[in-house]
Specification:
The chain has 436 residues and is an alpha+beta fold. It is built from 7 helices and 20 strands. A 5-stranded mixed β-sheet has the order 17-16-13-12-20, with no helix packed on it. Strands 1-3-4-2 form a 4-stranded mixed β-sheet, with helices on both faces. It is globular. The chain starts with a helix and ends in a 5-residue tail after the last strand.
Length: 436
């Protein structure tokens, strides 16, 4: 019996040694087989970048294969230094390649188009080495240089490469913009299109005024010949998985073909594609009409609007921006809130004001604000009032000559009720939200 247990012990030891050797070989094989790409991590990274850009009033980013390649070749080059324990961060540059070139030169080499003249290649690059997307985003947001790349207005495309080393990830992100290239992205959850605009700092930028949308049968998906360009609009009924968006600035056009299944604004979210039957409409001849003003709603019954004192909400406006602040001390339902500009016959309702808000407009917190400004005056968001703790929504698409708050009057309405008339000369306007 003792011999039997000795033999069993020996067998157990041999099995244990074999398991350790096999495990060691697997780990060793893992180490020498290169650093695999983590595609799920890449998708989550793009999702979080777009969430943050949209919340901050920027256009989202479309994934681009050329920028992916730029990100990957630099990440692959840098793997020789992983896990970076022997690298002096003060003397080491994560963005210089084996030939001493930066991302702009690498973009030139692959033919990324410049704006106007050589050297105006519109790209930038960020990198991080952390175990999670959240940790990377925290690191990037703690640095002004990295935030400048993430929130740059003019970027419309992005490339990402993430290589895995055990539980850690090396990520490179390359941002870019090309002249006369306006991507379109899709949000399946809301059945919503995101339409971009070129907000780069170069004079060759294309600023769209109107759009047309066609399905893959060449059928226009809206009754009006042209739609006024807005950053977000519902996917029209009759859309197929492949659509075409025609942008016009009144003089020229940019045509963008879109595969909705590949153009998701938040690519880590589940894919759901609308399957509405196409509406049969004839294909029109493309023309370049001028913008037409929005038809105003019926004239409401005016009430005497308060303009001073302590009220639920305050509107501040100057040459930089217009800001609407909830100063009531409690959440408010501002979904029925709208601005009416009489001299433009234009209504800016909550769908426009709160387009990028991730905070409910029906329960808008105290201390939150909405800001409107012109990207032609500033590529960066203007300062917030001292009592605004969070910019819940930012709209920067107003042109310089469309800053309606600088002359004449505009009205604040709540549903059909006129609640305040605001004079440009006053610079401030206050009012209460009507109680039911």
């Amino acid at each position: 019996m003792r011999n039997f247990w000795r033999q069993m012990s020996l067998v157990g030891i041999i099995v244990l040694i074999t398991m350790v050797l096999v495990s060691g070989q697997a780990s060793l094989q893992d180490e020498i087989s290169g650093y695999p790409r983590d595609e799920a991590f890449e998708l989550e990274l793009i999702t979080q970048l777009n969430q943050r850009r949209i919340r901050d009033g920027r256009v989202p980013l479309a994934r681009n294969a050329d920028l992916d390649y730029l990100a990957f070749i630099q990440a692959e080059y840098m793997t020789q230094y992983m896990p970076f324990t022997q690298v002096d961060a003060k003397t080491f540059d994560y963005h210089i390649d084996a030939f001493g070139e930066d991302v702009k030169r690498r973009a030139d080499f692959i033919g990324w188009p410049a704006y106007g003249i050589p050297g105006q290649t519109y790209v930038s690059e960020i990198a991080a080495y952390y175990p999670s997307v959240d940790a990377m985003m925290d690191f990037w947001n703690s640095s002004l240089e990295h935030r400048t790349s993430i929130y740059q207005y003019g970027y419309r495309e992005v490339g990402v490469a993430v290589l895995r080393y055990r539980d850690w990830r090396l990520a490179y992100v390359v941002f870019g913009g090309r002249p006369a290239v306006l991507p379109v992205l899709y949000w399946p959850d809301r059945n919503m299109l995101f339409l971009t605009a070129d907000q780069s700092p170069f004079p060759e930028r294309f600023v769209p005024a109107q759009v047309q949308i066609y399905n893959d049968q060449g059928i226009r998906l809206h009754d009006n010949e042209w739609l006024v360009w807005t950053p977000r609009m519902p996917l029209p009924a009759g859309a197929t998985n492949n659509i075409t968006v025609v942008y016009t600035n009144g003089n020229s056009e940019v045509v963008t073909d879109v595969d909705l299944s590949q153009a998701r604004v938040f690519p880590s979210e589940p894919l759901v594609i609308a399957t509405a039957a196409p509406t049969q409409r004839p294909l029109p001849t493309i023309v370049r009409p001028t913008l037409t003003p929005t038809v105003p709603p019926p004239t409401p019954t005016a009430t005497m609007p308060p303009v001073t004192g302590i009220y639920d909400m305050r509107v501040e406006y100057n040459g930089q921006s217009l800001t609407i602040v909830n100063q009531s001390g409690h959440p408010l339902d501002i979904e029925p809130l709208a601005l009416f500009i009489p001299n433009l016959n234009t209504v800016l309702d909550s769908d426009w004001l709160g387009l990028y808000s991730e905070t409910s407009l029906t329960n808008f917190p105290s201390g939150y604000c909405i800001q409107v400004w012109s990207y032609e005056a500033s590529y960066y968001a203007p300062p917030m009032p001292d009592d605004c703790v969070l910019r819940a929504s930012g709209r920067s698409i107003v042109r310089l000559n469309q800053r309606f708050w600088l002359s004449g009057e505009f009205e604040m309405r709540y549903g059909e009720k006129l609640i305040a008339s605001c004079r440009a000369s006053a610079g401030v306007c206050a009012f209460d939200i009507p109680k039911e």
